[in-house]
Design a protein that fits this description.
alpha+beta, Arylsulfatase, C-terminal domain, 3 helices, 30% helix, globular
Length: 118
């Protein structure tokens, strides 16, 4: 519950209002295979999440997101307009879109920084 309270402070006011008016509750079953945040780090320009299912999500302050999936070797990029593009992991850095390439380089550096801070 402490983790929920901590992340509650990072929600935008309109997201908090939606959540407060929604009366649905989720029962937690420890025996289920629920995906959870294994590690996270808040950096100056992004927040990075390492999930229990081995996905890595980087949410940048400019409203862009990157989700890296090592299992299916794909990178999903969502720009600030929430337009989504999917790229093969091996060639994602060679993308023709400089915005995607720039965010991928930042994500790689942030992930390395998070992994080295253990």
């Amino acid at each position: 519950m402490n983790l929920f309270k901590h992340f509650w402070n990072y929600l935008e006011p309109e997201e908090k209002a939606k959540a407060e008016t929604n009366n649905e509750y989720i029962e937690y079953d420890p025996s289920s295979s629920i995906t959870y945040v294994k590690r996270w780090a808040k950096m100056e320009n992004a927040t990075i999440f390492r999930l229990s299912n081995k996905l890595v999500q980087v949410s940048f302050k400019d409203k862009t997101d990157i989700v890296m999936n090592a299992e299916n070797k794909r990178v999903v990029y969502s720009n600030s307009k929430k337009e989504i593009s999917v790229h093969p992991l091996v060639s994602a850095m060679e993308n023709s879109d400089p915005e995607v390439t720039s965010h991928l380089k930042s994500a790689k550096a942030l992930l390395s920084k998070m992994m080295n801070s253990t």
